[in-house]
Amino acid sequence: MSNPKPRGEAWKNPEDVSSCMVVVAVGENGDKATGQEKKKLWDRIWEVYEACKPPGSVIRSGGGCEARWRKIKPGCTRWREALTKAEAAHTSGENATDLVIFIYSTCLMPPTW
């Protein structure tokens, strides 16, 4: 029986941020159109990520980038929804700190019931 493949090193926050930026940049690239095959899309995302990843990051696979995005995407979606809600509730005189407090207190805090 062969030994199972050891887990790779955990993703660090700067890698997550870089990964999100790459997914958005590559996904919105009009030169490639929207009809890209999934494998080609993730190959391109991996290629760009490897070119601009934070210094000291480990080498990731294309499949690793896709798997990490599946974990990050729900949080990004919740953040975008919360930001949209906060922007709609914005009143005169509020600043960025007020916006963040509103988002956290109304949209991101877990319910206490």
Task: Provide a descriptive summary of the structure in words.
It is a single chain. The protein has 113 residues and is an all-alpha fold. Helix content is 62%, strand content 0%. It has helices at 13-27, 38-52, 62-88, 96-108. Helix 1 (13-27) crosses helix 2 and helix 1 packs across helix 3 (62-88). The protein is elongated, with a radius of gyration of 18 Å. It starts with 12 loop residues before the first helix and ends in a 5-residue tail after the last helix.
Report the major sheet: none
Q: What is the percentage of strand-forming residues?
A: under 5%
The SSE string, one letter per element, is HHHH
Helical segment tally? 4
Q: Uncertain segments of ≥5 residues (pLDDT<50)? A: none
Number of strands: 0
Work out the radius of gyration: 18 Å
* Helix/strand class: mainly alpha
Helix content: 55-70%
Rough shape? elongated
Ends distance: 49 Å
Average residue pLDDT? 78
